[in-house]
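Sanity check

After download, print the first record. It should look like this:
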Amino acid sequence: MQGDKQVLSMLNKVLTAELTSINQFFLHARMYKNWGLGELNEKAYKKSIKDMKQADDLIERILFLEGLPNLQHLERLRIGEHTAEMLQGDLDFEMSQLTLLREAIALCETQSDFVSRELLEKILSEEEEHLDWIEAQQHLIGQVGIANYLQSKM
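Expected structure tokens:
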């Protein structure tokens, strides 16, 4: 099935964001693990795996629409030097990704590509859930301080 060129281009932009996310969260997971922050390691690692599955779904959709998935491009990784900086980088990334996903969903709606829209809405929901988790972690740091927060994540 031949897909709309604008939709294919947007799906590739979302794919780029997912591929970038995989790398960012995987590196963060390994940094947390190295620092002994097991809970944060587990959360970031599971997020990178979820992003791989989302990327896989996007690749399959692009191929179905007779497009060519672009796996060669990544955006800038937002890697911090400490936990609070890493969480802020993740938050900034998620915020930009949510904007992109909303634009992609709107485009799919106008082009009547409801299957792509549904896929993107599922990804949007999962990203919003992760954004809520990051904001909760930042709130905890503000309430109990970074030292107590880090101790609770070991």
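If your output differs, re-run the checksum step. Summary of this record's structure: The mean pLDDT is 97.
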